[in-house]
Amino acid sequence: MKSYRKELTFNIPDRRGYVNITADVQAAIKESGVKEGMVLVNPMHITASVYINDHEEGLIKDFDEWLEKLAPHAPVSQYRHNGYEDNADAHIKRQLMGREVVCAITNGKLDFGTWEQIFYAEFDGKRDKRVLIKIIGE
Ligand code: ZN
Questions:
Q1: Which residues make up the environment of ion ligand 1, defined by Cβ < 5 Å?
Q2: Among the four 34, 63, 74, 114, which has the fewest Cβ within 10 Å?
Q3: pLDDT tens, 15-46?
């Protein structure tokens, strides 16, 4: 069995942002040489998510507005996180959008439905954040 590990780094200039990383994951699969297997993709941080959904700008704005309604950033005084941290909303948004995705690799490619795309979602940006890609298979 082959095993391959890669890290991607993102520095989103705003507090929140959504990046389609499907091509990065597909590139890692190619580098791995794995034809049949699985790929795991997860942020190595607890204030960001990796999720699969449609690459449609309206929907991405809908996700962002929904998250901000459920866990508004301000006022930060509404949260108790460590008594001083200003990113409690980012922890909660990440929990709502999930931690990781696991995808099938068939014939060296992501075995996806028509509209499936992998996104990195940042909820506490303006600094380097890492995403782990782990591939196993043959
Ligand atoms: Zn925190």
A1: 85, 87
A2: 114
A3: 999 999 999 999 999 999 999 999 999 999 99
Q: Determine the distance separating the centroid of ligand 1 and the alpha carbon of 58, expressed in angstroms.
A: 29
Ligand 1 centroid – CA 95 distance (Å): 13
CA-CA distances (angstroms) from residue 80 to 66, 122, 124?
22, 21, 17
Count Cβ atoms within 10 A of the Cβ of residue 123 and give its class: 0-12 exposed, 13-18 middle, 19 or more buried. buried
Report yes or no on whether pTM surpasses 0.70. yes
Q: How far is the CA of 81 from the centre of ligand 1 (A)?
A: 7
Whole-angstrom Cα distance, residue 113 to residue 117? Answer: 9
Q: Taking a C-beta distance cutoff of 8 angstroms, is the pair 121, 95 a contact? A: no
DSSP-assigned beta bridge partners for residue 119 = 20, 51
